[in-house]
Structure formats: structure tokens, C-alpha cells
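User: Predict structure, ligand 2-acetamido-2-deoxy-beta-D-glucopyranose.
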Amino acid sequence: MLSNKLYTLALVLGAALFDIRGVGAAPASQGSWNSGLSQVYETTDRLPLPNLGNVIAHDPNIVQHDDHYYLFKGGHHVPIFKADHLSGPWVQIGTVLDANSIIDVGNRSRPWAPTTVFKDGTFYCYYTLSSPGSRDSAIGVATTTTLDGSPWKDHGAVIRTGLGEGSDVFPFTETNAIDASFITDQSSGKSYLNYGSFWHNIWQIPLSDDLLSIEAPKKPDAVQLTFMPDQHIRPEEGSWMSYHDGYYYTWFSRGKCCKFNPEKGGGFPDRGHEYNIRVGRSRDIRGPFVDKDGDSLLKGGGTIVYASNHGVVYAPGGLGVLAGNDSSPDILYYHYLNASIGFKDGDARLGWNVLNYQDGWPEVTSNSTVANANAAPILGLPSWLTILIGAHGQTSR
Ligand SMILES: *[C@@H]1O[C@H](CO)[C@@H](O)[C@H](O)[C@H]1NC(C)=O
Ligand SMILES: *[C@@H]1O[C@H](CO)[C@@H](O)[C@H](O)[C@H]1NC(C)=O
Ligand SMILES: *[C@@H]1O[C@H](CO)[C@@H](O)[C@H](O)[C@H]1NC(C)=O
Ligand SMILES: *[C@@H]1O[C@H](CO)[C@@H](O)[C@H](O)[C@H]1NC(C)=O
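Assistant: Predicted complex:
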């Protein structure tokens, strides 16, 4: 907690910053959250603003396929959206599940934090079910062969923690089966499931070749990827793993994700303790991962790549990375809250930035010229006009 003096200073500074940038006029409906901002913001102008995704999404997951983008997010039966551009317009084309999940945990009609991968002609969507605040959780998987309209098959749980089959085997005895991500080893071709949050943070387990189950349920050969030792609460979650030029990158969100409640003057953590996006790297897919300072991710390390910025972007996290190639860069995408719109969980929206690697460390850039899945600019317009359209498109719910 800030001391009273510091608090007052922060309040004044916060208000001043906010006024200078001219985004401070809070809509009346949002009450007095201005006074909350001083507590809230450790805002930096060093980081670029997001390119707007123009869609509401918490823990977004994006797949690029056949010159289109497909977005998956938590929601009734896991909605799927489609667009030709990362800035939309996004159109809902269906859902992953056509009924409640066959896994009996949490709210079976509303899985969250999906991660979808395409492998050998099949799409695999790993989704999370959990009872809030407990380790009673499961990661399930559903498959399909085309994203536009063909039905998905729900295969049920890949791993479970807290209760259910296999949850008595370490590390499922100590971890939380949420927030799945997926990575394939470049040389061996073996695939891994990464998962976890709080309790014992983020772990990795080898998958079977069918990608529907783990390889050795009784002896899972798990490795731990991140850990915050000496902490009572360990808010690291939403991991992602990417590969770039000889390195595997473990990405994750650290800090408080949601339940910010400015109307009631509460819910904001100390400054800098809201969601932010961090990374570490390793030559080996199984780690150990270290950050830019050489600190182990198992000892609280993690280099910040993206965080609250410009007095408007708050608590970015729930990220993924779209892999580029020789002619197209990697793209970091995530959700964030726009302080001039609101702090409700349901206000989180998609943002994205092109990544640039400096000495093998990813940095976000303000470049927005590469947003089109179809290599040519949309409608053949000049690229500066394409950017304008992308940046000013309407937000769709
Ligand atoms: C479960 O999720 C559905 C949306 O799929 C929602 O309408 C319902 O209120 C949720 N149930 C509970 C108990 O939260
Ligand atoms: C690289 O990625 C872009 C964008 O996804 C794609 O249009 C292009 O065909 C890819 N090029 C190669 C050589 O794979
Ligand atoms: C935040 O919201 C304001 C008001 O709708 C909008 O003008 C601005 O572009 C938004 N910024 C971001 C980064 O979402
Ligand atoms: C933005 O990205 C495009 C395509 O990758 C590249 O040609 C251009 O040089 C980049 N612009 C800047 C300012 O880095």
C-alpha cells in the first residue's frame, strides 16, 4: 500500500497526466473512477499503443488459415469469429461446441481461454473449464477439419486438477488445469501442452501423437516453466510458447487480470501489479527459461514486453503470438482495457503489435502495415488509407 503522502502525490500526478493527455473526461456513467487512476497507473509512453482489433475479447486466440484470421474466445460454447484483417471487421461464424462440454466441472456451457492449433489437416481447440477460485479445473479438447461450418467433436478432458480422473497424479495434485497453450518441437516434432496459473504457476507436459491426451498419464514427465517463489499469491497465467530463430519463448501474463471496480473505489492492485505481458527464452523447448537479465523464470524472472501505457491502455494480457515467416513478422496479440471506455471484464478488447527482435529479444513496434492476411492491401487502397480504416473501424460486440 502507498503511504498517505505518496498516495496524495500520486493522485495529483495521476490527475495531471490524465488531463494533459486530454482523455480524462470520464463519462458520467462511470462515476468517480478518476480518483482510482492515480492508484492504477504506472503508465508509460515508451511502449506503442495497440493496433485496434475492434472486437471485444478476453483471452483472445487467433489462428491464421487460408488467408483469413479466425478468433476464438471464452463464451457460450466458445464463439468463433472470422476476418480478413486483424483489425476486423470480425464476423461470428459459429461456435466450437454445439452442446455443453462433456466434462463435468465449472460452467460446462461456457469454456474459456481457448487455444486452437492446426496440425496435419485437423484443428484442435484446447479449452478451459474451472470452478472459480479453486483447482477444480480441466483442459478439454475438441477437433474439426474445417473452420467454416463443419461440426466439431468434443473429446473431453486432456488433464484435470482438483478432482476427476488423473488429478491424483503429480503435478496435477498441485497445479491448476487452466489456460492451455501448445508448442511443437522444431527438431523432434513432439508436441507439448503448457498450462497453469496461481498455485504452482506454469507447467509443460508431453502430448500423445493424437494430441487428444497426454503421453504418460501415470508419469507425465512434466517440467515447470515459471514460478514465483516466496510469494503467497502467484499471479502468473495465460502462458503461450513461440519459436523464433533458434529460441523457444515462454510468454505469460503476470498480475491482476480482472474484477477492477472503479465505481466502488476498489479492485485495483498497487501500480504495476495489474496484468502485464512477460517473456523468457531457452534454446530447449523444455527450458530452463531465463529473461533478458539472465534471471530464471522459475525464480520470478520475466522481461516485460507490454504493459499499461499512454494513460489509456490498462492491464494488457491473455496473449498469443502469430508466427511470421521470412516475409512477414511475428505478431503479438492480447486483450486490454481502454481506460476511457471502462474497466469491466466484459470491456476487454483485442489489441495487436508487430514484434521486432533485438538480439533475440522480442519488442513491440508501432508498425501496422502488415495486418492483412491477404498480402495485398484491402480493396487495393494505398496502405496509409488501409491503416486509417483499420485504426478507426467500429468496435463490434
Ligand atoms: C453459465 O454460462 C452461461 C453462458 O454460456 C450463462 O448464461 C450462465 O449464466 C452461466 N451459469 C452460471 C451458473 O454462471
Ligand atoms: C508468410 O506469411 C504471409 C502472411 O501469413 C503469407 O501470406 C505468405 O504466403 C507467407 N510466405 C511464405 C513464404 O510462407
Ligand atoms: C480508447 O477509447 C477511445 C474512446 O472510444 C478511442 O478514441 C481510442 O482510440 C481508444 N484507444 C485504444 C487504444 O483502444
Ligand atoms: C513495417 O513493416 C513492414 C513490413 O514488414 C516493413 O517493410 C517496414 O519497413 C516496417 N516499418 C518500420 C517503420 O519498421
